[in-house]
Specification:
GO terms for molecular function: ATP binding. Helices cover 23% and strands 36% of the residues. It binds adenosine-5'-triphosphate.
Length: 351
């Protein structure tokens, strides 16, 4: 449905995105996730045809629509777009906003399609309202209905929920995912919000400084991150320097720990061990000792920061009943059933 092959985007010859390759199948929802300025919107604009490809290609339905020196016009790409600010026309009603892209259809067909879309986004009762009289979530559903009106093959969404509050974002992301799935439409969303990405997407691309670090299913990004940058971007974690020893063990400031499986790394290799909070647990008789220096109440548990004797700090997940206090010395147990280890020189994951 959508394929990017080695795409590069540049402004005045300054390359802001390069070596971008990914594919999205019909009905699949993808998400580009990355910090502000990493090039997400530029990729979206190149897919829509608003920016030319500086190098590489954009393919839609198997057809090459952008390559250096050729850009198929946006209106010929059968793409719908939803923007951050909804961009609804204030002087038109909800129904008229949705009908905007259907002007070439006969009046009756327009009306039928608008009713279908109002039902799809569950706004049947609000067709006659103006956008100023709608909540942010309702406005975004109108923007979605308008983008879907002309039955595009691909929907592009640029930070569609960023102006909404956190709770609404999550519920709207779920609703919009369900609507897109019902319509079996492919969509590519860009955001810097991880929760939004994980709620919405079948595939996530983690971007950094104009490059795609990994394009994978959310669970794969979490379980098998390709690099330490991806792992750290995806989840709260601490990196600790360790040494691989022959007998399936790692050692360092955290002590000496067995691994569940042999590693491909050379004996004595210097590695980074990435510890996520759920892998570090308070344990009375833990040989590894640390001092609680901060803790945040999270409802079901505490997220603690613990300082080791050498000054390194770890996140630790502590159950409520332990009643830990800041300054308290505790023992720690590491759960290394699934250790995340990375080559120090390349940052690549070691398995
Ligand atoms: N029209 C433009 N002319 C020149 N440079 C641009 C233009 N648009 C974006 N840039 C630059 O390209 C880079 C990538 O910007 P882009 O908007 O694609 O990033 P982004 O990840 O979408 O950021 P954000 O999340 O803040 O929207 C930035 O350095 C930005 O300053």
């Amino acid at each position: 449905m959508l394929a990017l092959n080695n795409l590069a985007v540049a402004y005045h010859r300054r390359v802001v995105v390069e070596h971008m390759s990914l594919a999205l199948a019909k009905g699949e929802i993808g998400c580009l996730l990355g910090a502000s300025g990493c090039g997400k919107t530029s990729v979206l604009r190149a897919i829509a045809g608003f920016e030319p490809a500086y190098a590489g290609e954009v393919h839609l339905h198997g057809e090459k629509v952008s390559t250096a020196g050729y850009t198929l016009a946006p209106e010929k790409r059968r793409i719908g777009m939803v923007f951050q600010d909804f961009a609804l026309f204030p002087h038109l009603t909800v129904a008229e906003n949705i009908a905007f892209g259907l002007r070439t259809l006969p009046k009756r067909a327009q009306q039928e399609r608008v009713n279908e879309l109002l039902e799809l986004v569950e706004l049947q009762a609000l067709g006659g309202r103006y956008s100023h009289a709608l909540s942010g979530g309702q406005q975004q559903r109108v923007a979605l209905a308008r983008a879907l009106a002309a039955k595009p093959d691909l929907l592009l969404m640029d930070e569609p929920f960023s102006s909404l509050d956190t709770e609404l974002r999550e519920s709207l992301a779920c609703q919009i995912r369900a609507i897109l799935k019902r319509q079996d439409i492919a969509a590519l969303l860009v955001t810097h919000d991880k929760t939004e990405a994980f709620t919405m997407a079948d595939k996530i691309g983690v971007m950094d400084k104009g490059r795609l670090l990994q394009w994978d299913k959310p669970v794969t990004l979490f379980d098998r991150p390709a690099s330490i940058e991806v792992a750290e971007f995806i989840s709260k974690a601490t990196r600790i320097r360790v040494q691989h020893s022959k007998r399936q063990r790692i050692s360092g400031s955290i002590g000496n720990w067995p691994l569940p499986q042999p590693l491909s790394a050379a004996p004595d290799a210097e590695l980074h061990l990435l510890l996520r909070p759920h892998q570090v647990k308070p344990c009375d008789d833990g040989a590894l000792k640390g001092k609680v220096i901060r803790q945040v109440f999270r409802g079901n548990d505490y997220l603690c920061e613990v300082e080791l004797a050498n000054g390194e700090q770890l996140y630790c997940q502590a159950p409520l009943h332990l009643n830990l206090t800041v300054g308290q010395e505790i023992g720690l147990l590491l759960d290394l059933q699934q250790p995340w280890l990375f080559d120090i020189a390349t940052g690549a994951r070691v398995v």
